[in-house]
Give the backbone structure.
Amino acid sequence: MLRVFPAAALISALAATHSPADTLGDARVGFSAERVLVLDGRRYIGRMWHMPGAQRHEQDLPAIKPVFILRARSALGDVVLPQLHTVVEFALPKELSVLGNPSLLRKPVGQETINGITTTKYTVEDDVPGGRVTGSLWLSRDGIPMKCDGRFEPKSGRSSTIYWELRDVKIGHQDKALFEVPQGYAKLPPEAAAPLLGMHLAQPPAR
């Protein structure tokens, strides 16, 4: 899971995949935030914007500064490359539905304040089709995923650790243009973008 999906958007994709607002998912309010993501010890800091049904993530990578756009109830995402005036459509890995499972939130253990926002902390221990998920989630009353600290142990292959935290959260309406691909951008196939991004993107299904 972690090796095939962009670090900048992993948890947000989990949050954007057809899950109800009271799970680790589509928050009921718009907001912007600084996003801290640590995958297997590698740290990524970027900005994110959210409105119910859509998310935008910006990330500085060594070679380029991609923008990831994700939409609820969609198996496809877009990577916008402003410097090249191009966009890449890719398929979200099926494993990303794991944390959209409402059963993961059946063990609340209390309330904690994360960076100024009151959250409910949940202990996660669940067997899923691809393996086992363990850890903790912190969600605000509006469904904002303020923090996640977990491990995914696949049935085959090495386990992966995930840490996610939101800082400087500002709740409010976000411009819908943030979640749209600019007009006139050329489309680039996933395999052509892989060297620029330093990661593999899954091909969207044929139309």
In short: Residues 190-197 form the longest helix (8 residues). DSSP finds two helices and twelve strands in the chain.
